[in-house]
Design a protein that fits this description.
2 domains, binds pyridoxal-5'-phosphate, single chain, 7-stranded mixed β-sheet, Aspartate Aminotransferase, domain 2, Aspartate Aminotransferase, domain 1, alpha/beta
């Protein structure tokens, strides 16, 4: 082993010779340093040169209670000495049973049956297949399509990609994707001057109503990201849209799939975003924060009527056909249970309201910046939309990669910000302090100043 192997440069060089990273043009790393992380603690990640970075984006929205959280660590150590994993067909274990009981209690009314997978995209695949198969079991073979919102993101496997609508992915992988029915997003960034977000979201619902009127006979389900289209630049909409959608889905005989992979577990202010519209979906997809950011696990929570549509004598061949090798992994389920314990012990949702207010106050002055078109916030998600010109909302040409300048400035100053295009956002772990919020927003402000000049 070379002398530099345990410093950033040595590890980065080894990495770049063998690893292919996600969501990355690897050639960028000719200019941009790869950062090897040695340890984590709370909101901080520390690299091999001893430099610390505040994880303002919760390591891609998964971390809730900080890195190396003592409570989750302890729970996992105990689980590790008991059971790491066991086949989940024909066999079960107490950790998964307890987690399912908890999720049945915590999720919106009527959701009581848990089907596990190991990442968000797979949960979306499960929900899509389950909805389709439900209708098939009901003799409704003509129902094969899904309605989705423009600008939506549901993951990157082919089924999940098909119901998503991020332009770059569509342009690239379009020929491989099933057809979907796309409806304009209720995204409040697009509201008229003087129009409220609620009015806009409600007004945009007529497109959904029309699509349902026209297509309900061939549609299995509508899939949405409740309240925040996270990967689609943190665009937000009003809960009224979900209330209208639930009512319309019932009226038209179509399922509602709520993809709360990103917004679940307190990000929007409530434990689940659907609560703000007082609706229960037919399928609730959860992942990311489910294990507190520790281990890959996802779950689709569904209703008894859906479950019953598959429950029959074997010879009738109505069983659901889906499995992953690591379904119901015991360590992952333990991390999830420990995470839920932390919500209760710390009265996290109440604490988050205080943190969300601090984030709002700390970014108050961003609203007046000539290159900021909007500062928007839903609970613990706060986003700043950078534009070339505030009045016309003319975006910066994407080729200029202004967001990347913010990223670089952040890294240089011990801050992990990872703008989505020209949208700088904060989605920190819930253990962030007031002082760290002040620091986080100050570095972002300086990064933005730098990014928009010249
Ligand atoms: C991240 C995300 C997914 C995909 O989850 P993976 O674990 O990355 O596959 C699906 N839906 C939404 C809304 C997401 O934000």
């Amino acid at each position: 082993m070379t002398k530099t192997a345990h410093h950033n440069a040595g590890l980065a060089a080894r990495d770049l010779s063998v690893v292919w990273h996600p969501c990355t043009q690897m050639k960028d790393h000719e200019q941009l340093p790869m950062i090897p992380i040695r340890r984590g603690e709370g909101v901080w990640l520390e690299d091999f040169d001893g430099k610390r970075y505040l994880d303002a984006i919760s390591s891609w929205w998964v971390n809730l209670f900080g890195h190396c959280n003592p409570h989750i660590n302890a729970a996992l150590k105990t689980q590790l000495d008991t059971l790491e994993h066991a086949i989940f067909a024909g066999f079960t274990h107490e950790t998964a049973i307890e987690l399912s009981e908890q999720l049945g209690k915590l999720t919106p009314p009527g959701l009581e049956r848990c089907f596990y997978a190991d990442n968000g995209s797979s949960a979306v695949e499960v929900a899509l297949k389950m909805s389709f198969h439900y209708w098939l079991n009901q003799g409704q073979k003509q129902k094969t399509k899904f309605i989705t919102l423009e600008n939506s993101y549901h993951g990157e496997t082919l089924g999940a990609l098909a119901v998503g609508n991020v332009e770059l992915y569509r342009d690239t992988y379009g020929p491989l994707l099933m057809d979907t029915i796309q409806v304009p997003s209720p995204d409040c960034y697009r509201r008229e001057a003087g129009e409220s977000c609620a009015d806009y979201s409600e007004r945009l619902f007529r497109h959904m109503e029309q699509a349902l009127e026209r297509h309900s006979h061939e549609v299995c389900a509508v899939i949405v990201e409740p309240l925040v289209q996270c990967a689609g630049s943190m665009r937000m909409y009003d809960p009224v849209y979900l209330t209208l959608l639930r009512e319309a889905c019932d009226r038209h005989g179509v399922h509602l799939i709520a993809d709360e992979v990103a917004v679940g577990f307190g990000r929007t202010g409530t434990l689940f975003a659907c609560e703000q519209a007082a609706v229960s979906p037919d399928f609730l997809c959860l992942s990311k924060g489910l294990t507190g950011g520790y281990l890959p696990l996802s779950v689709v929570v569904t209703t008894d009527p859906v479950y019953q549509a598959f429950y029959d004598d074997y010879r009738n061949m109505t069983a659901f056909l889906h499995s992953h090798s690591y379904t119901g992994n015991a360590l992952a389920c333990r991390a999830a249970l420990a995470t839920l314990e932390l919500f209760e012990q710390n009265d996290t949702l109440a604490h988050n309201r205080t943190l969300a207010d601090s984030m709002a106050r700390a970014t108050q002055h961003f609203r007046d910046h000539p290159n900021v078109a909007e500062v928007r916030q839903t609970g613990m998600i706060l986003a700043v939309e950078l534009v070339q010109d505030r009045a016309s909302r003319q975006p910066f040409p994407w080729q200029e990669r202004r967001g990347l300048r913010v990223y670089r400035y952040g890294l240089a100053n011990g801050m992990l910000l990872r703008p989505l295009g020209n949208v700088v956002y904060f989605m920190p772990p819930y253990v962030i302090t007031e002082a760290e919020i002040a620091h986080m927003t100050r570095v972002a402000w300086e990064g933005i100043q730098l990014a928009v000049s010249g």
